[in-house]
């Protein structure tokens, strides 16, 4: 129901079905201020240094930021401006795009998966399929009028950057540079434009609760002025404050599986605040649906047997969307030892008490 969109209303209090139980709340006072999320300069001339920085970041954080990434700064400004403009469109304009069916390739929705969840999240989002562009752009919104043009160019540049990063990640795993791009097949590209309205009670709810991304690689453009992204490390939440002209990159579940668990798809979440609305634009590179996800021989040699069973991305993605967001790590359900021991304990979401 389109009237669930938060961006069309004014909120003095939060409705009770957005309030988390006491022991699942964000505890914003316990969050570590922005610290040490690695920043990689893609303009640096020493490629071996870039590779080793990325290796370390993927292994220890699952997250890093890139600067001098080659994406046009003017284009990025337009992307952010249009995102805001879009969420400020009149309710009747937005109602036309509303859907809560995760299978739809273009949809404006709210929270995460309103059909499955019991507590909602303080977020609206426009989700678009972006590859191949010619197939999807005709059905993208045409209001704001420059939407298709600007996001079309943006998606192309993001894809290029993503492929470059996958090349470096391949090298950092001791594989040939083309390895990941080759095994991921004809990758789909999805985009989520996230809008987190001002929230009168940010301690009681989330923009996005703790989750891992189900895809291969995520390229996140953050609101340049407002913080909200937090990454889980060593039992604590760390804020990733916006850094000028940087993108935040994170390893998704499929790279964790393909690296045989060496690289981590880590828990992250978005919190909200009472002073300012916040936006972000997440681009997801996703394996081709039919490819089999299975680690390379090289990474299962040396006494480290395959951690996960082989599966197709299609199977994984369906499983992911059939669940609520803040359950156990979805990859846990694909562990090889679950076949022999289905009741083995799994990694719970860090905000859910066990
Ligand atoms: C996501 C995500 C974080 C943010 O869309 O998967 O983690 O800061 N977004 O909006
Ligand atoms: Ni995410």
CATH architecture: Sandwich
Name every ligand kind in the structure: N-oxalylglycine, nickel (II) ion
What number of domains?
1
Computed Rg: 20 Å
How many distinct helices?
A: 10
| N→C terminal distance | 33 Å
Name the shape in a single word. globular
Strand content: 15-25%
Could you tell me the number of beta strands?
14
The CATH H-level superfamily is B-lactam Antibiotic, Isopenicillin N Synthase, Chain
Major beta sheet summary: 8 strands, mixed
CATH class, anyone?
Answer: Mainly Beta
Give, in order, the helices and strands.
Answer: EHEHHEEHHHEEEEEEHEEEHEHH
Provide structural commentary.
With 354 residues, this protein is an alpha+beta fold. It has a single domain (2-340), classed as Jelly Rolls. 26% of the residues lie in helices and 19% in strands. It has 10 helices and 14 strands. The chain has helices at 47-60, 73-87, 91-95, 133-136, 147-172, 179-183, 253-258, 297-300, 313-321, 337-340, and strands spanning 39-41, 63-67, 106-110, 124-129, 188-196, 208-211, 217-222, 229-233, 236-239, 247-251, 268-270, 278-286, 292-293, 311-312. The strands form 3 sheets. It has an 8-stranded mixed β-sheet. It has a 4-stranded antiparallel β-sheet with strand order 6-11-8-9, with no helix packed on it. Strands 13-14 form a two-stranded antiparallel sheet. The radius of gyration is 20 Å and the shape is globular. The chain starts with 38 loop residues before the first strand and ends in a 14-residue tail after the last helix. The mean pLDDT is 93. The structure holds N-oxalylglycine and nickel (II) ion. Residues 211, 213, 268 line the site of nickel (II) ion.
